[in-house]
Amino acid sequence: MAWSIADVARMSGVTSRTLRHYDEIGLLPPARIGSNGHRYYEEAELLRLQQILLMRELDLGLREIRAVLESQADQVAVLREHRRRLLAERDRLEMLARTVGRTIAELQEGEDNDDMVKINRPENLFEGFEASTPRIDAEVRERWPRAWEQSRQAVEGMTAEDTEHYQREVTAHLIRMAEFMAAGTPVADAAVQAAVDAQYQFVCRYWTPNAAAYKGMGQHFAEDPQSRANFDKIAEGLADYQRDAMVFYADARLS
C-alpha cells in the first residue's frame, strides 16, 4: 500500500514542505514518484520517518540522523535505544510536573492565608530542570553553516550567568508575544514589531540571520512538533503568531 505526501503529512504531523526537504537532501526519498509528479510513500518510508522524528525529538541534527540511518545498524537495537532515552525524558518531565505542582500548592496556600507568599525550600523550584544553552535548529546548521559556526563559538564562550540571562530573555519575550496575541494585536503593529526587533537584536549576539534565515527560524517554531509544543505550553497558537511576526519583520527590515 502507498500513501501520498498529503496522507503522510496528515498522519505524522510533518508538513509537506518538510517532507519535500527531506527528499531533496536524501534523508527520506519517497518509494516512487507518480506520473503526475506526486510523491508516494510505502511502509518502509513510514518506518524511516518514525526513526527520523524520534531522533529529532532527541535533538539530533539532520546530518547526524542521516549518518545513523545509513550506518545499517540493527533497527530494533536503535529503536530500543530511542525508547530508553524517551523514557528517561518522560521521567524528567514527570519530575518537572511535580515541581510545578508543588510551587502552585505553596503559592495557593499563601493566597488562602492572605499572607505574603513564602517558598519553603527555594531549591525545590528548580528540581528537574536541565542546564541548557541556546541552540540553533539543526536545519539552520544545514542551510547556513557559517551562521551555525558563529553561534557555536558564541555559545561556547557563555558563562552560567550568561545562560541564565538568555533563558530569562527568551521567556520574557514569549510572554510579551503571548500577551499581544491574546489582545488580538496584529503582527504588523508597531509594538509587536518592536518586540520582534528586540528579539532579533538579542539573536544577533549569537549569530546574524539574514531575511531567509530569520524566516526559517520562524517556520521552524511553527512546523517542528517539539518547538510548537513548547510554544503551546505558553499559549496555543503562539508559534504561528511568532512566525508571522518574524516573517513581517524580515520582509520589512531585513530584505
UniProtKB/TrEMBL annotation:
<dbReference type="Pfam" id="PF07739">
    <property type="entry name" value="TipAS"/>
</dbReference>
<dbReference type="InterPro" id="IPR000551">
    <property type="entry name" value="MerR-type_HTH_dom"/>
</dbReference>
<dbReference type="InterPro" id="IPR036244">
    <property type="entry name" value="TipA-like_antibiotic-bd"/>
</dbReference>
<protein>
    <submittedName>
        <fullName>MerR family transcriptional regulator</fullName>
    </submittedName>
</protein>
<keyword id="KW-0805">Transcription regulation</keyword>
<keyword id="KW-0804">Transcription</keyword>
<dbReference type="Pfam" id="PF13411">
    <property type="entry name" value="MerR_1"/>
</dbReference>
<keyword id="KW-0010">Activator</keyword>
<keyword id="KW-0238">DNA-binding</keyword>
<dbReference type="InterPro" id="IPR012925">
    <property type="entry name" value="TipAS_dom"/>
</dbReference>
<feature type="domain" description="HTH merR-type">
    <location>
        <begin position="2"/>
        <end position="71"/>
    </location>
</feature>
<dbReference type="InterPro" id="IPR047057">
    <property type="entry name" value="MerR_fam"/>
</dbReference>
<dbReference type="InterPro" id="IPR009061">
    <property type="entry name" value="DNA-bd_dom_put_sf"/>
</dbReference>
